[in-house]
Design brief:
Radius of gyration: 17 Å
Distance between the termini: 6 Å
CATH topology: Deoxyribonuclease I, Chain A
Strand order of the largest sheet: 3-4-2-1-12-11
Number of helices: 5
Structural class: alpha+beta
CATH superfamily: Endonuclease/exonuclease/phosphatase
Number of strands: 12
CATH class: Alpha Beta
Largest sheet: 6 strands, mixed
Shape: globular
Helix content: 10-25%
Strand content: 25-35%
């Protein structure tokens, strides 16, 4: 079972990029972020022609998340992260696919910091941790995949000082991610590639893609009951180098 997460950065604008990657990689489950379209504009019919059924939560011009399943119907369980009824940003969706519960998330960026956007980021990550803990205690096989907008350690950022003031690398952001993972969750890419510089995001500016000046912001966290099934994990780096590409590349895991 191949499960991927991909911040597509406007699903309609980059639909051809997405379709090309789907045809090549043939993932079984895909978590998409930054749809940047409302619910009516999501390209469900086109994706269905490619063999993917989908559930989604859109938001015009901003945010938006979706879960695609190849040859299966995702069973929708949630379209928002619990804990704040006043939060209407489309950042979380959850569905069961082939016996695995999939949580697709797009965490807040948090810039500029300090300030209200950074406070919202930290509060959102705290809500995610509480919800993840509640799900884990149900002992269901669960994957939390998406753009966490956190580079957890120094090895997850290319050697630079240019991000020192960025919300993605602040001690509070990293501590929130560390508390989320705790001793129970499996950070799939880091577990299988300890000590290796692996990036999922390259800013469009300053030739960062060409210089491989990236960050690892997109993560797939697994419950312990999937640990023995984790066979491989990686990043489809080549997707970032295509014309008109998103500034993220798909990250993926393969489960036995």
């Amino acid at each position: 079972m191949l499960i991927a997460t991909f911040n597509i950065n406007n699903v309609n604008k980059r639909l051809e990029n997405l379709l090309a990657w789907l045809r090549e990689a043939e993932p079984d489950v895909v978590c998409l972020q930054e749809l940047k379209c409302d619910d009516r504009s999501f390209p469900a019919a086109v994706l269905r022609q490619e063999g993917y059924e989908a559930v989604w939560k859109g938001q015009k011009s901003w945010n938006g998340v979706a879960i695609l399943a190849r040859g299966a119907e995702p069973v929708l369980t949630r379209t928002a992260l619990p804990g704040d009824p006043a939060d209407h940003q489309a950042r979380y969706i959850e569905a069961a696919v082939k016996g695995v519960l999939i949580g697709c998330l797009y965490a807040p960026n948090g810039n500029p910091q300090p300030g209200p956007k950074f406070d919202y980021k930290l509060a959102w990550l705290a809500r995610l941790r509480r919800h993840a803990t509640a799900l884990r205690r149900q002992d269901v096989p669960l994957v939390l995949a998406g753009d966490y907008n956190v580079a957890p350690t120094e090895i997850d950022v290319y050697p630079t000082k240019s991000y020192e003031d960025n919300a993605l690398v602040q001690p509070e952001s990293r501590e929130a991610f560390r508390r989320l993972v705790g001793r129970s969750w499996i950070d799939a890419i880091r577990v299988l590639h300890p000590g290796q510089r692996i990036y999922t995001f390259w800013d469009y500016r300053r030739y960062r893609w060409e210089r491989d000046a990236g960050l690892r912001l997109d993560h797939l966290l697994l419950t312990p009951n999937l640990g023995d099934r984790l066979a491989a994990a990686g990043v489809e780096r080549e997707a970032r180098g295509r014309e008109g590409a998103s500034d993220h590349a798909p990250a993926w895991i393969r489960l036995r």
